[in-house]
TrEMBL record:
Species annotation: Cyprinus carpio
GO-annotated biological processes: carnitine metabolic process; fatty acid beta-oxidation; long-chain fatty acid transport
Pathway(s) served: Lipid metabolism; fatty acid beta-oxidation
Stretches assigned to the Choline/carnitine acyltransferase domain: 171-719
Biological role: Catalyzes the transfer of the acyl group of long-chain fatty acid-CoA conjugates onto carnitine, an essential step for the mitochondrial uptake of long-chain fatty acids and their subsequent beta-oxidation in the mitochondrion.
Protein name per the record: Carnitine O-palmitoyltransferase 1, muscle isoform
GO MF, any single term: carnitine O-palmitoyltransferase activity
Chemical reaction(s) catalysed: (R)-carnitine + hexadecanoyl-CoA = O-hexadecanoyl-(R)-carnitine + CoA
Domain Carnitine O-palmitoyltransferase N-terminal: 1-47
Active site: H451 (proton acceptor)
Tagged with keyword Disulfide bond: no
A GO cellular-component term linked to this record: mitochondrial outer membrane
Amino acid sequence: MAEAHQAVAFQFTVTPDGIDLQLSREVLKHIYLSGVTSWKKRAIRFKNGVLTGVYPASPSSWLIVVIAIMSTMYARIDPSMGMIDRIKTSLPFMTVQTQTVLSAILFATGLWLSFIFLLRYILKALLSYHGWIFESHGKMSFSTKVWLSLVKLLSGRRPLLYSFQASLPHLPVPSIDDTINRYLESVRPLLDDEQYKQMESVANDFKKDPAPKLQKHLKLKSWWATNYVSDWWEEYIYLRGRDPIMVNSNFYTMDLLYVIPTHRQASRAANVVHAMLQYRRKLERGELTPLRALGIVPMCSFQYERMFNTTRIPDFVQHLKDRKHLVVYHRGRFFKVWLYYGGRHLLPSELELQFQRILDDKSEPQPGEIKLPSLTYFNEGVNRASLEAIETAAFFLTLDDETHGYDPENIRSLDLYAKSLLHGKCYDRWFDKSFTLIVYKNGKIGVNTEHSWADSPIIGHMWEYVLATDCFHLGYTAEGHCKGDINKKLILIGCSYMIAKGIADDVDFHGCLFNEFGKSLIKKCRTSPDAFIQLALQLAHYRDKGEFCLTYESSMTRMFREGRTETVRSCTCESTAFVKAMEDERTTNEQRLALFKKAADKHQNMYRLAMTGAGIDRHLFCLYIVSKVMDIDSPFLKQVLSEPWRLSTSQTPQQQLNLIDIQKFPKYVGAGGGFGPVADDGYGVSYIIVGEDLITFHISSKFSSPETDSFRFGQNIRQAMLDIRALFNPKEKKM
């Protein structure tokens, strides 16, 4: 590691006259300020922990209850029906007056805590209702309005990030019958009659035995555990795997699409790092506002906990507290940069100085240093101290020596930008860190995120905050530097690769900006934008490959405690009927439109089922885990879990925080992010609906597959979108 050393707080020498002790007042001052900051942080965490612990009540409500009970006692009324007197008898060695006051306080406290638990129980019961999701957009029943009013009433006024955790319902275990019926329905369009009959027979055999035994154990786990899926999902899907996580698991997020606030690399890195530190401080104190559907229904926040100070270690996720340094990679060298000075965060201008020194440093990498990050696949033999510094860092920063970003005059610019964020040179990102921040020479930025600790909406939440803070709160000088003065006293602290390179070189990526129309027009067609896009993907895939395939769409389950994701199987009998009609010249547009609406309604209903815990894939996955633990062989589960997802899709959330008014600032829109292909012969498609008139598609596949071509698939998606729009406007012709 390229590293400078900070001065110690004191020096001493042994002389004939004794020990000559020399103290550094400046350093001692910073030690004092650091200690004060640490205690302030603990006090704030304690205060917010109390606020979260008693939510939806408040600490002041305890005082109100105590005063009310004391008042009734002075009025010679006993609201406790004798309980206060019984408490008094267990308080010896006190005066009668002290016993009376203390017993009243204890009773009031018990009454107050009982009231809190009652409120939480009622709120949890209310949040278990999901009928509102299945109602048509813009049409809300009277019962749902009453329900929303009650939820709003019981939700309190100023919830913190984790205030609702104790009130969120647990994810329910679907019934075996429902799961198998929906599974058979999902594979029906992919199988001929004989294949379907065979699958139906295998499924029915499984339903008789061993499904009931497996279901009993799964029910038992759901009663005991907070979430019957999440721990197994993290362990077996992410942590037990030994394949490289680069491309196969990690995903990326892009910068603003059209705007670069400054072209100075060190300045942009400094502002963004400072914004991330501000976000981390709010996160650690629990001061962020929880995400709520309709502005009322809370989403689970447990995934936020491991955003910073986190590293994936084989078989577990290591999360630490109060990490005060950052590891920076530049031109094969590693630098350790302290993030605090005098008990406070470094200011953007101070961080800029540190990063500029790194950029100006002409020293050569030490032997073996340049490709050290490629050893995130095989950590043995790496210098332990250097590795520990990286694994215990707040996060990882790469000051990239390339230039990337969207260039409307270069059709491949978005593709190259995405590939760089997804894998870079294979050795210039630390793929095991919770996330790697990448800052390019031209000031463009992006993030590569490790997947085990959280899903994309979580990093997207932080990213929206960072971009808004960077552009609209911190800002830059006219010359592009960070604002603020610089403290001159700061001191700067300073065979695997080939496998990774083979994976990276095989990624075929295409970024497709679809701006012919967007959410605004789709809503005028009275259909869900997500359903519209998913049906366009089905049509595009059929035109691309001439066949249908099992399709994965990610849906969140964060309305349940510790919920993560569920699968929406987008290829349905209704969607395949629509696609076939689109390719059949004998079918009229009226017939196609009717089939489209039927398929869109089907997709919306499946998405709602997945969000409300009635999906099938996580249930089947957990049944499989139970079968392996019990050493039960199930041909049905083996076949189900071996089926490849040749089309894997996901929508990137937009405007979770609403910090930027994109109507007022249309250029300050994000480009979204993406991921690698799940199947060797398949496509990975991530899309983001940006504002009202732009949809960005991130398409990945593998060059090694003769069946796929990401650019070709992008053109098929574009044409499919236009062809579906033409159904609502008969005057339009195919392009």
